[in-house]
Amino acid sequence: MVIKLTLGLLILVASLFGIFQAFNLLLSPPDSLVQQIPANTPLPSHSLSAKELAKTPGQQANNSAYYINQLRLSAGLTSLTQHSTLNKAAQNHAEYCALNNLQGHYQQSGKPLFSGKIPSKRAFQAGYHSGVSEVISYNQPSAEKFVDVLMSAIYHRLGLLDMESDLIGSAVSSLQKGVVKRAFVAEISNQKLDDLCLADKATPKSERYYTKFCRDPKASILEKDFLKAKSNIAKHNPKLLVWPVADSTVPPVFFEESPDPLPNCNVSGYPVHIQINPLWLKKIQPIIGSFKLYQLKGHQKISVPLQARMSNLTDPNHKSKTSLVSWAAIFPKRRLKWNGHYEARVQYKLNQQIHTLRWQFFTPKQPNLIRITYHQASGKPIPVKVGTINTLYFEPNSCQAPKKVSIKVWRPSKLKLSQKFIDPQTLKLRVKTAKIGDKIKIEYLPAHTKLTLIVVQ
Q1: Using an 8 Å Cβ cutoff, are 180 and 95 in contact?
Q2: Listed range (27-31, 72-76, 107-111, 388-392) with the worst mean pLDDT
Q3: Which of 400, 410, 447, 451 is 20 to 30 A distant from 161 in Cα terms?
């Protein structure tokens, strides 16, 4: 009897592998930041440094792939090998996005540089033979930032930390015009599955096999070979991983991704997650309710309120086809604190015994951090010194914050000032030249938060 697994069942198996296009991911950046200040004052922006501009898009793409492997190795995972055909598929889509000023995984036939509607079709057009997963980010100032924003978003992170993949193709297109000034695209896949799609061998009539997965619509892969291709990589990876990894430093914030795991929020704390090796799914099961996060302040351990607990079983965007937990994540209700020290805790069952896993991580240190509450005018002037960097953090009071932000600045004509947004709620500011007693008035829009800085000795 021929047992033929067609597209519907393939979604179940291939999505667990992480290479089916139904699980493709897209990360869009926050809207651009605009500053209403005198014309002779430099605008804060995500513009490229001279050093970064000197790098070619190819160098930036290689740096991104290298950085992804650094992050994977830090989590105990095997690295991904760059694949020239996947590089080409990624390059085709990055250039399509930049030239047509479009974001997303889907291309429109008839548009310039069209190379395929969906990621796998574009990989096929480039000469690859099996399915791929794709992640995209836009308008970041460096190779590392392209990846960091992907790692702050749970679905993208899961794709980049996949335990059954061993190939990557990456590309950057940098036209520096329109809404999509720069596009980073990565394609991820499995070498053995690509080989199996090329293999020309008869399928035994009594065995289960998969179709409609390869470039050749007539090609099929035996189920046992399909599973072996995945397990041969998974067996070299740890039985479970956590992110952020212990003692690492990560950004404090998650904004949005598509699909959106938190549709009622546009800003929240950096998600923390645990991920189970597919080979261990039947042996290790996280206890979702035990997953907690604490801020450490001196000898204090302060519980961090959560916006959501989530796993592959409760993910609102991807209907689970299994009863086993393969990943679980928590989303802090508010942004984490700058200069923060945190501890995560989760319990899991292994061989019917309960184990407790604890680990700590940090958020970046910001110099001379000044925390300002939304909608709260500052009455007393805040002292600043010439030549010293100060960080103004306009802390949201909920998981909703303005998507478009700007500031107005009033200052003496001879006072020289530099400023740059790190993110929509965080502004770095340095007084270059000024007289003692000079005042700088700032209004943070659209919250209309006002404050005054005064130059001191």
Answers
A1: no
A2: 27-31
A3: 400
Q: Which residues contact 422 (CB under 8 A, 6 or more apart)?
A: 366, 391, 428
Residue 29 · residue 179 · CB < 8 Å: no
Contact 104, 26 (CB under 8 A): yes
Q: How confident is the model at residue 244 (pLDDT cuts 50, 70, 90)?
A: very high
Q: Per DSSP, what are the bridge partners of residue 406?
A: 445
Work out whether the CA dihedral 329, 331, 332, 337 comes out positive or negative: positive
CB 157 within 8 A of CB 261: no
DSSP letter (8 states) at residue 235: T
Quote the CA–CA distance of 185 and 24 in Å, as a whole number: 12
Q: Which residues pair with 184 in a beta bridge?
A: 137, 172
Q: What is the DSSP letter of 298?
A: T
Burial class (CB in 10 A: 0-12, 13-18, 19+), 161: buried
Residue entry with tokens 């308008």: 139
Give the pLDDT band of residue 38 (cuts 50, 70, 90).
very low
E strand segments, 191-235: 208-211, 220-222
Q: 42 phi and psi, to 5 degrees?
A: -60, 145
What confidence tens digit (pLDDT) does each residue in 280-326 have? 999 999 999 999 999 999 999 999 999 999 999 999 998 888 899 99
Distances 397 to 152, 215, 380, 448 between C-alpha atoms, Å: 20, 50, 21, 14
Residue 261 is encoded by which pair of tokens?
């795991």
CA atoms of 224 and 216, how far apart (whole Å):
20
Question: Which runs of consecutive H residues, i.e. helices, occur in 106-169?
Answer: 119-126, 143-151, 154-160
- Which contacts of 115-120 are long-range, i.e. CB under 8 A and separated by 24 or more positions? 115/89, 118/21, 118/24, 119/21, 119/24, 119/89, 119/93, 119/187, 120/21
Run of H or E residues at 10:
helix 7-17
Q: What pairs with residue 175 in β-bridges?
A: none
Which are the contacts of 294, defined by CB distance < 8 A and separation ≥ 6? Answer: 301, 302, 303, 304, 342, 343, 344, 345
The torsion defined by the Cα of 52, 53, 57 and 61, in degrees rounded to 10, comes to 10
Q: Which two tokens stand for residue 247?
A: 């003692």
What sections of 247-299 are H helices per DSSP? none
Q: Residue type for 367, please?
A: P
